[in-house]
Design a protein that fits this description.
Blueprint: E1 32-33, E2 65-71, H1 76-90, E3 94-99, H2 105-109, E4 113-121, E5 125-126, H3 131-138, E6 153-160, H4 169-180, E7 184-185, E8 190-193, H5 198-206, H6 209-213, E9 235-243, H7 250-259, H8 276-279, E10 282-290, E11 307-313, E12 326-330, H9 335-345, E13 351-357, E14 370-371, H10 372-379, H11 388-394, H12 401-411, H13 416-424, H14 430-434, H15 446-452, E15 459-462, E16 473-479, E17 482-484, E18 490-492, H16 494-500, E19 508-514, E20 528-531, H17 537-552, E21 565-571, H18 574-577, H19 581-590, E22 595-600, H20 610-615, H21 618-630, E23 634-640, H22 641-659, H23 663-675, E24 679-684
Length: 686
């Protein structure tokens, strides 16, 4: 799906998708991680706070082990898991984080105390790393005994977004299914809403967690950071003898730093949640052009954004795709951003470092060895949002007393409103805080920074091309997201801005392909209804290309008569925003598209949207119902969640009107269409 209209480096999104990156430092082990949670660093290390006197004894955990499992798509629940591990250690638990991608049923059954942090992704689905676990947990075949998890005590927190129809479905299902297999809940089920304040929901839910689990032996205050507490390091960075020639910039040092490697991490076991950093090839952009009419005279009042048509060569990197799959892009920080940030922190961009873990089970989070430039360009999200928990981690590295007092005030739980105004609404990032920003005195060693900064997350775009027509190249349609902060500075979305900057036949990007639910019916005779306003047109273009190919190569016996294909498209201005207009009209002329209905919301006396086109013409509405109900047709919807809700309400209304159904009956019919795979949505938050 396309990148959200909200800034991807500041706001969570989903394209057909959701996307969140939580502040918090990460520990990157395969399976469960049991690193020490708190470290007081010696003063001789630049940027690290003074270290309290420690004994050589290993910490003891009188409250026993707790395993913290996470289902995470964009790093949020993984970050929450890291936070709980730190707090659990302080509360006397031997706390470990565990990636659900590597869950083992027997290990699960022998886990005495488990915390599950379960994100819901897309249209109510588990995250990629939790799919295997959730399929097992549902026990649809009844193969698992009802008391299989009888020895497990558990807690569940769900992460979701209320703009989506199936809010926190995965968290709710996990909570219910664990009980069905005999596990015992020991703390209230909790939910967070990313449409409101997910992190605050999480903090409120966990405020009494540890005191509850210890019978009141600890309080939530035991988990608060002190002003001089630096992050607990699970690895150090060690300089290697090879030094990269850094005079040519980021693109060249990517290859140079990889050639500097004396041993390959790519071929060894890698962190499941970060595997894309190790196996995503770098593909070349072959076309990058503007789709909108930026010279449109009526655009002055609203401003003119950019929507890009981008083509990427997959053939040369050995990737294939199916029509309307999802293409993942791993964006990069711009060279000037990296250089300013490194200069501020005192990093040598040409230095090559390797990861040295503090435990034998350590697995490097990123390819190692690696140049400092590459770490800051390709892996560390220094332009992402600063969450409340991340600000707390930064404080120990701030050298100015005045700046530290400001940060401490904003980090106080009772000052959430001030934090929201000064950090969230101001679109502050690590880069903007440190480079000529309000925390310019901060100096953070690179190893510490890599524990604090989130990894750059992939962004998913629904592919806008047919794999039959374009087997060697993949097309995506990208809306470049922009906003203006309180200082009047223009801020561009990390991924969309990165893609916009890639020159044809020169620019490259790391990519991988993920399957999508957008598939045409098996029979060409089955009718289809396509609803895709704005960049939601992307998968509809792919489906229309595919449909045209199938019509041209209709060799079945007897030859199938193509079913009707109806497209609803909308945008603000016909003369500015009607992307792919020539192609759409050509599809109609050639017969792949039988009906085209357009809504231009700013061109008329009143705002008209695609859902209005579906319901305000009785004959058209009756035809849509006939296609979906009588002819077994399929409906595809792509765009913002609010639009998706309006379209679903329109379909319910059409069923009530033309099928004489009650509200409940019409809603139930829509649910059945969804269950049969004939009502398919890919939506993102606006």
């Amino acid at each position: 799906m396309s990148e959200s209209s909200s800034l991807t480096n500041y706001i969570a999104i989903g394209v057909g998708i959701l996307a969140i990156a939580l502040g918090g430092y990460y520990t990157f082990f395969m399976g469960c991680n049991n690193s020490v949670a708190v470290e007081k660093a010696p003063p001789q290390q630049p940027g690290r706070a003074a270290k309290k006197e420690e004994t050589s004894e290993k910490p003891k955990y009188p409250n026993g082990p707790v395993s913290i499992f996470f289902g995470s798509q964009t790093g949020t629940s993984e970050g929450f898991a890291r936070t709980l591990m730190t707090e659990g250690r302080k509360a006397g638990f031997d706390a470990k984080t565990c990636d659900l991608e590597e869950f083992d049923p027997e290990v699960m059954a022998n886990t005495k105390l488990a915390i599950f942090l379960m994100a819901t992704y897309g249209e109510g689905e588990p995250t990629d790393n939790a799919q295997k676990f959730m399929a097992w947990l549902k026990n649809e075949n009844g193969d698992i005994a009802a008391d299989f998890l009888a020895n497990v005590k558990y807690v569940v927190f769900g992460l979701g977004n209320k703009q989506y129809e199936h809010f926190n479905r995965t968290g709710k299902q996990c909570n219910a299914q664990l009980a069905k297999l005999g596990a015992q809940p020991v703390y209230q089920y909790g939910e967070g809403d990313d449409d409101s304040n997910l992190e605050e929901d999480f903090d409120t839910w966990k405020s009494n967690l540890w005191s509850n689990l210890t019978g009141g032996a600890v309080t939530s205050g035991a988990s608060d950071n002190d002003a001089n507490e630096t992050v607990a390091l699970t690895f150090d960075l060690k300089a290697v003898a090879v030094k990269v020639d850094d005079t040519r910039g980021a693109t060249s040092t990517h290859d140079a730093s990889m050639r500097a490697s004396t041993k390959s991490t790519a071929s060894s076991k890698v962190p499941a949640s970060l595997k894309h950093f190790f196996n995503s090839p770098r593909a070349t952009v072959t076309c990058n052009r503007e789709l909108r009419n930026l010279q449109f005279a009526g655009a002055g009042k609203e401003g003119v954004g950019s929507t890009r048509h981008i083509e990427i060569n997959l053939h040369d990197v050995g990737l294939t795709y199916y029509t309307a799959d999802n293409l993942a892009i791993l964006p990069e920080n711009a060279a000037d951003v990296v250089e300013k940030f490194a200069r501020q922190m005192g990093y040598d961009l040409g230095e090559v470092v390797e990861f040295a873990g503090k435990e034998a089970s350590f697995v490097a989070p990123y390819p190692s060895p690696c140049s400092v430039r590459e770490l800051l360009t390709s892996f560390a999200d220094i332009q992402g949002p600063v969450r409340h928990s991340m600000l707390k981690q930064i404080i120990a590295y701030v050298q100015s007393a005045e700046e530290k007092a400001w940060a401490l005030s904003l980090a106080a739980n009772e000052h959430r409103a001030q934090f929201k105004e000064a950090i969230e609404e101001a679109h502050q990032s690590l880069f903007s805080l440190f480079v000529n920003g309000p925390l310019a005195s901060a100096r953070i060693p690179l190893a510490d920074l890599l524990h604090i900064a989130n990894p750059i997350q992939p962004r998913y775009y629904t592919i806008s091309s047919s794999s039959h027509y374009h087997p060697d190249t993949v097309h995506i349609t990208v809306s470049v997201t922009e906003a203006v902060n309180r200082a009047g500075q223009k801020i561009t979305g990390l991924c969309s801005g990165f893609l916009q900057s890639l020159a044809a036949n020169k620019g490259t990007t790391r990519v991988f392909v993920r399957p999508s639910t957008f598939r045409l019916p098996k029979s060409l005779a089955s009718p289809v209804v396509l609803v895709g306003p704005g960049t939601g047109l992307a998968p509809m273009r792919a489906l229309l290309q595919e449909r045209q190919y199938l019509i041209e190569n209709n060799t079945t016996e007897p030859v199938q008569t193509p079913g009707d294909c109806v497209l609803f498209f909308g945008c603000k201005h016909k003369q500015m925003d009607y992307i792919y207009r020539d192609e759409i009209e050509r599809f109609q002329a050639q017969g792949a598209l039988t009906e085209l209905h357009t809504a231009f919301s700013r061109d008329g006396a009143r705002k008209v949207y695609v859902q209005h086109l579906m319901t305000e013409d009785a004959a058209r509405g009756a035809h849509l119902v006939k296609m979906l109900v009588d002819q077994g047709g399929s409906l595809y919807v792509c765009g913002a969640t609010a639009m998706g809700t309006d379209v679903m309400n329109a379909v319910v209304q059409l069923l009530k009107t033309h099928q004489k159904l009650s509200q409940e009956e019409a809603t139930a019919m829509v649910k059945k269409l969804q269950e049969k795979g004939r009502y398919i949505q890919e939506l993102w938050t606006a």
